[in-house]
Each structure stands twice: as C-alpha cells, then as structure tokens.
Design a protein that fits this description.
Elements (H helix, E strand, L loop, with lengths): L2 H19 L7 H22 L7 H17 L2 H7 L1 H17 L1 H4 L3 H25 L1 H22 L3 H10 L1 H18 L2 H11 L3 H31 L6
Helix pairs in contact: 1-2, 1-3, 2-5, 3-5, 4-5, 7-8, 7-10, 7-12, 8-9, 10-12, 11-12
C-alpha cells in the first residue's frame, strides 16, 4: 500500500510548515499560536493514521499531500500580506479538519457512521407511524419534517455537514413524541376509560385499543432508543463530516 507513506509525507510537510510559521512576521502572535496548535494536532493525526491504514486510498492521500504542500508554499509573509491572516488561517483549519476526517476513509471507521445512519433512519420511522395514529395535528407536524429528514439522510450518506445539522434539528421532536408515547401508552393501559376512548375513536373493540396502546408505547421506546443512539454517535463522529 502506498497510502501510509504518502500520509507520512503529509505529516512531514506539516512539520515543515510549523518551522516556517515561527519565522513569519505578518502573522499575529495569537494566530501563530493557534496555527501551531492546529498543525501539530494534524501532524500527529496523520502520523498515527499512517500506522493504522487498512484501506489503500492513494488518490485521497495525494489530495491531502497537495493541500499540505500548498499550505507550505503559502506560509510566507508575502502571501499573508496579500491574502490576509483570515484566509491563511482558513487553510490551516482546513488541514486540521482533513486530519480528523481521514481515519474514516483509511482506517475503516466509516462502518461506525453507517450504524449511526441506520439508527437515525429506523428511529424516524416509528415517529411517522405514531404521528399517523395520533391524528391530523401530529400528522401535519410529521409532514413538515419529511423534507428535512430526507435531506438529512441524503447528506449524511455523503458525509455532508449540512446533513449532520439537519439531523440534529429534526431529532428533538421525535424524541419528545417518543417519550410522550411511552407515557401515554402506559397511562392508557392502566386506565380503562382511556382505552374506551381509543376504542371509540377507531370504532374497534377494547382488545384492539389495548393493542394500539401497547404499539404506541413500543414505537415510542424504539424511537427514543434509536434516535438517542444516533444523536450520541453522530456527535461523537462529527469530525467525519465536511
């Protein structure tokens, strides 16, 4: 595999950038310290990753090397004077982000993201089912969330940061409704008059009403569990998204 050697070259190039930063005059001390911290972290990440590669992705490794070389060439007082400290620091921050994204492409960590994605997908399904059971008001809320949910799913599969933001924006309502469903299901099962209301609403028997109450509680619990895991896992692996 060629990727490990290329990743080590990336780390070495970043070390060269650190040396150049120390000699800059047009970069403020505050940004110097920040840049050195970010680049040192990136260098360590790439160095560590070089020993953990299980997927050979030479094209991506070369992309990181090209970006590191570009950053090295731009680490001059002339460039910073022309483009400004802000643009230079953006390049430094981008290199740091790449070092955190890389393990998901080279070390096989993408499998953990797939688990989070499936948890989000299957955690949202009970929400839409329960919303239909509860009636028009809840169904309308569910319909409003359909498009953001679909966009989140599509973007998450491509590891887009927009998908991550949409997922976190969408999940609170289903989780709250899940908690409400568990509570309501337990309440209905322990109060016959509530079961009678359910039976009358559906024009079915009391046994059917009990089944609905149990179904609602189970779906609510599933939604809470899966979405809770999805939220935790997506936040844990937030650096995988660009």
């Amino acid at each position: 595999m060629k990727s490990p050697d290329i990743l080590r070259d990336v780390a070495q190039t970043l070390e060269d950038v650190e040396k150049r930063i120390n000699n800059l005059k047009n970069l403020s001390n505050k940004n110097k310290a920040k840049a050195l911290r970010l680049l040192n972290e990136a260098k360590e990440n790439f160095t560590k990753l070089a020993d953990e590669v299980v997927i050979d992705n030479e094209e991506l490794a070369n992309f990181f090397l090209k970006r590191a070389v570009k950053l090295k060439n731009n680490t001059t007082d002339k460039f910073i004077e022309k483009m400004g400290e802000k643009d230079y620091m953006k390049e430094v921050s981008a290199m740091n982000r790449y070092s955190k994204v890389a393990p998901y492409d080279f070390a096989g960590k993408v499998k953990e993201l797939q688990k989070a994605y499936r948890a989000f997908l299957f955690g949202m399904i009970p929400f839409y089912i329960v919303s239909g059971i509860y009636g028009p008001a809840f169904a309308i809320t569910a319909l409003i969330l359909v498009i953001p949910t679909l966009l989140a799913m599509l973007s998450l599969r491509k590891r887009g940061s927009i998908g991550l933001m949409l997922a976190f924006a969408v999940m609170p309502i289903p989780i709250v409704l899940g908690a409400f469903s568990v509570r309501y299901g337990i309440y209905a099962l322990s109060h016959k008059e509530e079961l009678m209301k359910i039976a009358n609403a559906f024009h079915k028997s009391l046994a059917f009403a009990q089944g609905v109450a149990i179904l609602v509680a189970i779906l609510g619990a599933i939604s809470i569990g899966l979405l809770g895991y999805a939220a935790y896992s997506l936040y844990k692996h937030r650096h995988a998204f660009l």
